[in-house]
Hints:
Elements: H1 2-14, H2 20-53, H3 76-79, H4 82-99, H5 103-130, H6 138-170, H7 180-190
Amino acid sequence: MFVWWRDVLRESTLEGHHTKVVQLGPRYGSIPFIVSEVMFLFALFRASSHSSLAPTVEIGGIWPPKGIGVLDPWEIPFLNTPIPLSSGAAVTWAHHAILAGKEKRAVYALVATVSLALVSTGFQGMEYYQAPFTISDSIYGSTFSLATGFHGFHVLIGTLFLIVCGIRQYLGHLTKEHHGSKILLQIMFTKK
C-alpha cells in the first residue's frame, strides 16, 4: 500500500499527471468499494437482527443465547458512539478548511481526526478484551466479532489514509483542486 501511495504522490504532486480526467478514476473506483463495504455490514447486521428477532431452537429460542454474558451498552459501546461521530465532524472540518485555503486548520483537523480514530480503536480493543464471550460462542459471538472486527479494520485502514492525507496536507500537496482522497475519507468516516 505504501508503494502505491508513493506512486500516487509522485505522479500527482511532482509530475502533474493527475488531470481532471485521471482524477475521475479513483473517485469512481471508490464507489464500488464503499457499496461493497455497506453491503457487507448490512449482511452482518441482518444476521444479528434475524437471530435476535427470531431465535431458533438451536440457540435455545432466546436472545441472547443461554449462557452468553452480554456487554453493558452504557459503558464502552456508549463511549464509542460519539467518538466516530466526532471524527466525522473533524474530517469535515478539514475538508472545509482545505476548500477555504486554511492549510494549518486543515492539519489541526486531521490531527484531531486521527487522534479520535486511535481512541476509538483503543476502546474497541478494550471492548474485545472485556467481552465475556468469543467468536465461537454461537451466533451472538460470531456476529459481534465479525461486525466489530470488520469495523475495526475499516477504522484502521481509514486512519492510515488519514495519516497520509495529514502528511500531504502538512507538505502542501492538497489544494482546492486536488483533494479527492479527502472526499472519499469524509464519506467513509461520516457513514458511521
